[in-house]
């Protein structure tokens, strides 16, 4: 199992719109595509409180490539993204890292 950590830094004031999009649209599309989330977090203390950090669980890089590619081109996703950004851009930038658990990690 490998994990992907994604950090979305929002345009100031737009974090609520991002959270709403995940809750009402993105997670349903992920379920349809077989994408497994492993946790979502907002930042209480850190560089910015306008961030959403989440983890995805993948069996392999090949699985990630296939399922993430299908998600990004899913017509339901493209529609949900466009609708959620009707009032303006939500995310200023995204950082993504692919992580492998260590032998002593509680998460495998």
Please provide a written account of the structure.
The protein has helices at 15-33, 61-72, 75-84; strands at 2-10, 36-42, 51-58, 91-99. It is α+β, with helices and mostly antiparallel strands and 108 residues long. Helix 1 packs antiparallel against helix 3. It is globular, with a radius of gyration of 14 Å. Residues 3-105 form the NIPSNAP domain. It holds the Pfam family NIPSNAP. This is NIPSNAP domain-containing protein.
What descriptive keywords fit this protein?
108 residues; alpha+beta; 4 strands; four-stranded antiparallel sheet
In short:
It comes from Bradyrhizobium yuanmingense. It contains three helices and four strands; from the N terminus they run E-H-E-E-H-H-E. It has 108 residues and is of the alpha+beta class.
- Structural class of the helix and strand makeup? alpha+beta
* Main sheet attributes: strand count, strand direction, barrel closure: 4 strands, antiparallel
Low-confidence stretches: none
What is the share of helical residues?
25-40%
Q: How much strand content do the residues show?
A: 25-35%
Termini, distance in Å?
6 Å
* Number of E-state strands: 4
pLDDT averaged residue by residue: 97
- The value of Rg in angstroms is 14 Å
Order of helices and strands: EHEEHHE
Number of helices: 3
């Amino acid at each position: 199992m490998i994990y992907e950590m994604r950090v979305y830094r929002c345009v100031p004031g737009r974090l609520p719109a991002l959270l709403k999009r995940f809750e009402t649209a993105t997670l349903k599309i992920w379920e349809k595509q077989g994408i497994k989330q492993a946790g979502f977090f907002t930042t209480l203390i850190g560089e910015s409180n306008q961030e959403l950090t989440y983890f995805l669980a993948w069996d392999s890089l090949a699985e990630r490539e296939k399922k993430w590619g299908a998600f990004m081109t899913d017509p339901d996703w493209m529609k949900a993204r466009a609708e959620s950004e009707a009032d303006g851009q939500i995310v200023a930038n995204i950082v993504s890292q692919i992580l492998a658990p260590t032998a002593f990690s509680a998460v495998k």
